[in-house]
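Appendix B. Raw example, untouched.
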Amino acid sequence: MFSGSIPALVTPFVDGAIDEAAFRRLIDWQIEEGSSALVPCGTTGEAPTLSNDEQHRLFAITVEQAKGRVPVIAGCGSNDTQTALWHMQEAKAVGADAALMVAPYYNRPSQAGLLAHFSYLAERVALPIVLYNVPGRTVTDIKPETVIELARRFPDRIVGIKDASGDMTRLTAHRMALGEGFDQICGNDDMALHYNAGGGTGCISVTANVAPRLCAEFQAASLAGDMDRAHEINQRLFPLHQALFTDASPGPVKYALAKVLGWIGEEVRLPLVACSAESRRAVDTALAHAGLA
């Protein structure tokens, strides 16, 4: 269902408010540059700092502006099951194509709790779910056996996973149990080359915010088996993949966007602050290496 280069969109702010005009412009630019789907309200979109109304508004804007040109995977995750359900209901109501559902954070549910949480959601909203496993942020790890059980219980609902666990063996475990129809999407830009080689279908990407065409070309080459071209592009992008995490994300990528585009500002919401001078230097160097500045 989902493949290729999928940006986890930043949320532009001006004086503390969402810059809707810049967000719409970003959506158009992403589609024009070859992105294959869009993810609003993920971690890169600063979802933890958005009000519920803002989050639902961003779902609606993304669907409206995309105009069916690419799928929209709305970031609906929460550590409260009822809030996650509400987000999914709103995403479906405005026409999103799927929900990105992170493992509940801070609560630290067991595997049985994760199974119950995601089952509850899958049973109540007719919207495909892409699981999001990022134990480095959530502490909780969605183990392969839980992913497999969910996909077997709800084959029309649990359609894929964004995996940022860093454990490449899970690709094979998932693939052996679920086949090629279960979308395995990389959650780490710097691992996307190896992830696709192991059977992945794409990347939900931070770097694609600022380098959408290169990321799309990389994904196309990688998924087509043109590894020479994929390696070439990966080497152009690799320093940028790393530079965008030299400070708390999305500070560095917003700085990069401000440099490359000029019409998106660097503003982030507390508890994040603007990225450091050292991070800016790393981003500047990486943008030059990629041929983007």
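End of appendix B.
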